[in-house]
Amino acid sequence: MISAYIDRFEGELAVLLLGDEMKKVNFPREFLPAEVSEGDYLKIDISYDKEATEQAEQEALDLLQD
């Protein structure tokens, strides 16, 4: 789990500060919950989607074989 702080909004982007080191990233505002605002904290959970990856790899292989 990554802790993120909403530093500010710049148009359609949210400037997030991630983790203890407060690494700055721009994130599309449309993917954030509607009720958040500047100064709020978020929890971000990133996980590997093995099934989707394998499916995409198979689709690419199928295209190469045609």
TrEMBL record:
A Pfam family the protein falls into: DUF3006
InterPro entries: DUF3006
Origin superkingdom: Bacteria
Protein name per its UniProtKB record: DUF3006 domain-containing protein
Taxonomic lineage from the root: Bacteria, Bacillati, Bacillota, Negativicutes, Selenomonadales
